[in-house]
Design goal:
single chain, 124 residues, mainly alpha, 6 helices, 0% strand
Length: 124
């Protein structure tokens, strides 16, 4: 995780410090392996999940990842890579190396669906 987050920014002391702090916090919480991470996340979301109470924390986390985290991606490695990319972009934004996306950018516009178009016409 560390190598992926600092890739291309190996000389950036701010980024290294932030990533080290995050990983140190995870280690202090006892999250050392993938199973530990699944349990940690699953424990925090088990109450809010719609799954029965006898379902394991790992299953809760896997269901959360499947239904709520990057739902357009099927494989966990793809979800990991996009989250790494998003984290890198967030660090770049916070350090001023990139500017925020414009609200007028086409990628920030909502898609106009057929039903919405009919509704707009009918309201007039």
């Amino acid at each position: 995780i560390y190598k992926e987050l600092i890739k291309g920014q190996e000389q950036n002391a701010f980024l290294k410090g932030c990533v080290t702090s995050i990983l140190r916090f995870a280690q202090d919480e006892g999250v050392l392996t993938r199973i530990d991470a699944l349990r940690y996340i699953g424990q925090r979301f088990q109450i809010k999940s719609e799954l029965p109470p006898w379902v394991t924390e790992e299953t809760v986390c896997e269901q959360l990842m499947k239904e709520h985290i990057c739902v357009h991606l099927d494989r966990n490695i793809d979800k990991f890579n996009i989250l790494i990319f998003m984290s890198r972009k967030l660090y770049a934004l916070s350090s001023g190396r990139c500017s925020p996306e414009s609200a007028d950018s086409p990628m920030n516009q909502e898609i106009l669906l057929g039903g919405h178009l009919y509704l707009m016409i009918l309201k007039v």
